[in-house]
């Protein structure tokens, strides 16, 4: 790989080496940079001022270094930010959703960073602001709202906030008659709660010191949180837990799951003193979700070998496994993603041949119909309804060229009403752009979908730069949706591409299975195959590709950097999960036990240890000529802790050959999701895109934008 001349010659930070070793399954590793992990990380997440001064100095040195290397992009970053902000309707508002006498929605004021929540009379009228996020965030370096839920009597608002970035949310209750906060304030929650049927209390999850939702409690309004009743405690640290309710306000559902097993407990919403009733006990590999259906529950499950899921029903008063009856049978290759129940209809969102579709079922006749859609690649979402007894359901649609549209759909008459089309104030002509869906051949013969977007005038002769995005974990599918930010690259001649690699559910549940644990290497080789296919099809060239991914997608970036550094001209790894083996060996970390079904348990299994060790980015850094790399992190991130990218960057610089730089930018006031405000987040994206433009030699293209 040729040396880039885009960056000035500045000596990077070189953290001190303090070797420590560990041995597992007869294999010994040495880590020179383990000391970058703060011993008091749990306390520091709650109070960042407690960070060790030596570690803070190293992180600040990294920020100073990247600032020097990116100094010549300052004007470009401003231009990119201005463009991206110009595509956002500043005073945007959601389409209010009806519930009883009101319709509830959210909006932004001009220049506002945080959402406001409002309501209006059901059939229109003056808005009442229920919660003003900007007012709540005033004076805080970081602020993010969690769940916001009005009570069934429409007199109270339960809301949550995190002002550290550590995702320990505080719950508050607001009286909607006078707008004042009640005395009730509960810290260290999962970020949401569910009202009981009497609206005089709520259920919520409490996080333990390791950030695990270990308890479901009931809080009676006006009582001390110390006296909250314990409803259920999960003692297995390998399971996540959440609490939810039904729209008819009859049931409270406690959901317990890891990445391959689930379990539900139910209780009546009008009896917070009842013991939750077990639906079906956890059985490794058995997954099921409950959805209300009046006197029944709809059950979405993979039971009995239904790999791509089927839908069953059970009586609501006794939904145990023995009473499940099949309603929609399993069909291999048709992945059922979610179900919403209404009085007279049932709606399911599924994926067929890699694309989403909505199916509406008449509950009395069993007749089904599809909502028809046209484009080659698109995104589809179910917005549901606050109400159960209604004929109207809401859905959203967009593609990489088509702005988001929101529709109300009458499930009986099949009438579709367009409620809103996303406005792009600075203008958008979708005829100027092309979206395509390609299939890249993988080494084992599988075809990997690629969704791509480019300007109609972009030359497809191999000269165009390309940003290739990937994720590929947890069964998450990256939608081919509309994103106004991408046009700042596309209008500068970039091809923007999404690699739908194994590890997601893009082609069914098997696509996920083939990209996890022992098959994880497929995720990485699929991404490399996508890069090579784009080059073979003359969309770009290898030294013109900037790869990008975040979190588990950041792990993907670290792996492909080690496996095929010559395939990429630059790499952006956001909050990257790059020290996989060390993290999976540490059961004290917030997400480690629940993650073992996804990655394997290297503590208990020598095979899992060797599998992870073979791809863990930090463990496989070598004397390679890496392309320019940018890593980004947040200090208080509980999901991917800051020390993972900090260590990775230090080891890359120590071991790599070649002169291409490795940059590390850490937000000292945020966590996993980056900056919390909608515009401050754009500043981070502008920085990332300026890096991509810089390594492609386009850092000065501040005015050469196609229209």
TrEMBL record:
UniProt family annotation: Belongs to the peptidase S9A family.
PANTHER family recorded: PROLYL ENDOPEPTIDASE-LIKE, PROTEASE FAMILY S9A OLIGOPEPTIDASE
InterPro entries (UniProt xref): AB_hydrolase_fold, Pept_S9A_N, Peptidase_S9_cat, Peptidase_S9A, Serine_Peptidase_S9A
Disordered, as annotated region: 1-26
Top-level taxon: Bacteria
Residue stretches making up the Peptidase S9 prolyl oligopeptidase catalytic domain: 482-698
Keywords, comma-separated and alphabetical: Hydrolase, Protease, Serine protease
Annotated Peptidase S9A N-terminal domain residues: 12-421
Compositional bias annotation for Basic and acidic residues: 15-26
Protein known as: Oligopeptidase B
Any one biological process term the GO annotation gives: proteolysis
UniProt-listed Enzyme Commission number(s): 3.4.21.83
One GO molecular-function entry: serine-type endopeptidase activity
SUPFAM superfamilies listed in its UniProt record: alpha/beta-Hydrolases, Peptidase/esterase 'gauge' domain
Pfam families: Peptidase_S9, Peptidase_S9_N
């Amino acid at each position: 790989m040729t040396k880039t001349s885009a960056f000035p010659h500045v000596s990077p930070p070189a953290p001190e080496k303090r070797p420590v070793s560990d041995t597992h399954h007869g294999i010994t590793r040495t880590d020179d940079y383990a000391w970058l992990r703060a011993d008091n990380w749990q306390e520091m997440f709650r109070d960042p001022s407690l960070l060790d001064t030596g570690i803070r100095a190293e992180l600040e040195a990294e920020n100073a270094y990247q600032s020097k290397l990116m100094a010549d992009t300052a004007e470009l970053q401003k231009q990119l930010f201005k463009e991206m902000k110009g595509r956002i309707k500043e005073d945007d508002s959601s389409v209010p959703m009806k519930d009883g006498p009101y319709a509830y929605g959210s909006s932004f004021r001009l220049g506002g960073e945080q959402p406001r929540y409002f309501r209006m009379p059901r059939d229109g009228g003056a808005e009442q602001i229920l919660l003003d996020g900007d007012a709540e965030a005033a004076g805080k370096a970081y602020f993010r709202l969690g769940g916001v839920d009005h009570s069934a009597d429409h007199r109270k608002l339960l809301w949550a906030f995190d002002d550290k970035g550590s995702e320990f949310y505080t719950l508050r209750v607001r009286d909607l008659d006078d707008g004042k906060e009640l005395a009730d304030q509960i810290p260290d929650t999962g970020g949401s709660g569910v009202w009981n049927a009497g609206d005089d209390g709520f259920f919520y999850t409490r996080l333990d010191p390791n950030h695990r939702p270990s308890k479901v409690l009931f809080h009676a309004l006006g009582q001390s949180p110390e006296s909250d009743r314990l409803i259920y405690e999960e003692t297995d640290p390998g399971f996540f837990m959440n609490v939810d309710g039904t729209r008819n306000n009859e049931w409270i559902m406690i959901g317990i799951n890891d990445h391959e097993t689930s379990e539900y407990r139910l209780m009546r919403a009008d009896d917070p003193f009842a013991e939750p009733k077990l639906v079906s006990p956890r059985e490794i590999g058995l997954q099921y979700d409950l959805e209300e259906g009046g006197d029944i529950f709809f059950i979405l499950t993979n039971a009995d070998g239904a790999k791509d899921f089927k839908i069953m029903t059970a009586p609501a008063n006794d939904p145990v496994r023995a009473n499940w009856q099949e309603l929609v049978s399993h069909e291999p290759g048709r992945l059922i993603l979610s179900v919403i129940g209404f009085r007279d209809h049932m709606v399911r969102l599924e994926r067929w041949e890699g694309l989403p579709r909505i199916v509406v079922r008449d509950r009395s006749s069993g007749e089904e119909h599809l909502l028809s859609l046209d484009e080659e690649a698109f995104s589809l979402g179910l917005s549901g309804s606050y109400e159960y007894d209604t004929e109207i359901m809401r859905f959203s649609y967009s593609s990489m060229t088509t702005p988001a549209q929101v529709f109300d759909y009458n499930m009986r008459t099949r009438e579709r009403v367009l409620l809103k089309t996303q406005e792009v104030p600075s203008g958008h002509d979708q005829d100027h752009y092309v979206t395509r869906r390609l299939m890249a051949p993988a080494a084992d013969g599988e075809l990997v979908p690629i969704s791509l977007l480019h300007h109609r005038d972009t030359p497809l002769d191999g000269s165009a730069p390309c940003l290739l995005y990937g994720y590929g974990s947890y069964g998450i599918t990256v939608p081919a949706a509309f994103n106004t930010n991408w046009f700042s690259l596309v209008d500068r001649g970039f091809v923007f591409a999404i690699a739908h690699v194994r590890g997601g559910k893009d082609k069914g549940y098997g696509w996920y299975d083939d990209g996890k644990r022992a098959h994880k290497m497929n995720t990485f080789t699929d991404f490399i195959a996508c890069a090579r296919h784009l080059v073979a099809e003359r969309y770009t060239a290898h030294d013109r590709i900037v790869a990008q991914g975040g979190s588990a997608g950041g792990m993907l970036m670290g792996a492909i950097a080690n496996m095929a550094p010559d395939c990429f001209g630059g790499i952006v790894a956001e909050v990257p999960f790059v020290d996989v083996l060390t993290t999976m060996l540490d059961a004290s970390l917030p997400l480690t036990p629940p993650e073992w079904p996804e990655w394997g348990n290297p503590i208990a299994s020598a095979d899992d240890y060797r599998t992870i060790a073979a791809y863990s980015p930090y463990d496989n850094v070598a004397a390679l000529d890496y392309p320019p790399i940018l890593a980004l992190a947040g200090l208080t991130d509980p999901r991917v802790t800051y020390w993972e990218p900090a260590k990775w960057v230090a080891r890359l610089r120590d071991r790599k050959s070649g002169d291409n730089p490795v940059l590390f930018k850490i937000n000292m006031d945020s966590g996993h999701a980056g900056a919390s405000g909608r515009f401050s987040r754009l500043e981070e994206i502008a920085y990332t895109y300026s890096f991509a433009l810089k390594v492609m030699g386009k850092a000065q293209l501040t005015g050469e934008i196609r229209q």
